[in-house]
Amino acid sequence: MVFMEIPLVSRRQKIGLLGGSFDPAHEGHLHISKYALKYFNLDQVWWLLSPSNPLKKNNPGPMNERFYYANLLVKHPKIFVTKIEEELNTVYTAQTLRLIQRRLPNVRFVWLMGADNMIQLDKWMNWTEIVNRVPLGILARPDNTLAPLKSKMAKTFSACRLNANQSRNLSKMKAPSWCYKNLPLLNLSSSQIRAS
User: Could you tell me which residues come within 8 angstroms of residue 188 by beta carbon, excluding any fewer than 6 positions away?
Assistant: First the structure.
């Protein structure tokens, strides 16, 4: 059994997983996490700080530093910062989901992502496995409101889309299922913060 330090969770809880570099974590991450709790009827949101991103040229800053600053930012009782991917020694989301579900078979997971990631999801390793493994909660970002709906993922899994007004049912749905939800927009990004 693979060791994994996880937040306290009980059977049948609905957990949103938000993966990313969080380099650095910022109010935008917190913003979409709070709305994800509400829109997708989740009990918790876990931030999965990734050790690296295979789609980016540069590796993120040191994990312990990112973890420390993310925890300074998060003061919400239902949002937790984790180093699960480092602990599991995984790089790819499909791998991470496989191991988390094996470790917690009675918990319902929803993969959360900004709409910008939806556009490039088909570039991710084993991306169709991700869609077939857990429901996807997709949140619109300032510069990407319509383009994601023309993405390869949206077209391939169009029959599995849940209407936005039914978003609170997503966490009860079996995969493949996904819901695209607009939210009040907060235009922040880690790359902008690093640049400044």
Answer: 26, 27, 28, 31
Distance CA 150, CA 60 (A): 29
7 assigned to some structural domain = no
DSSP symbols for 14-68: EEEEEEE--TT--HHHHHHHHHHHHHTT-SEEEEEE-S--TTSSSPPS-HHHHHH
Q: Bridge partners of 178?
A: 136, 161
Q: Tell me the torsion sign for CA atoms 173, 138, 35, 21.
A: positive
| pLDDT, mean of each 10-residue run, the chain (196 residues) | 72 95 93 96 97 77 94 96 94 95 96 92 96 96 75 97 97 97 68 49
CB burial string 163-187: b at 16+ within 10 A, e below:
eeeebeebbebebbbbbbbebeeee
Give me the number of domains the chain comprises: 1
Query: Do residues 188 and 28 lie in contact, with contact meaning Cβ atoms separated by under 8 Å?
Result: yes
Q: What confidence tens digit (pLDDT) does each residue in 97-124 have? A: 999 999 999 999 999 999 988 999 999 9
Tell me the CATH number at 121: 3.40.50.620
Residue 3 lies in a domain: no
Q: Any idea how long the chain is?
A: 196
DSSP 3-state assignment of 178?
Answer: strand
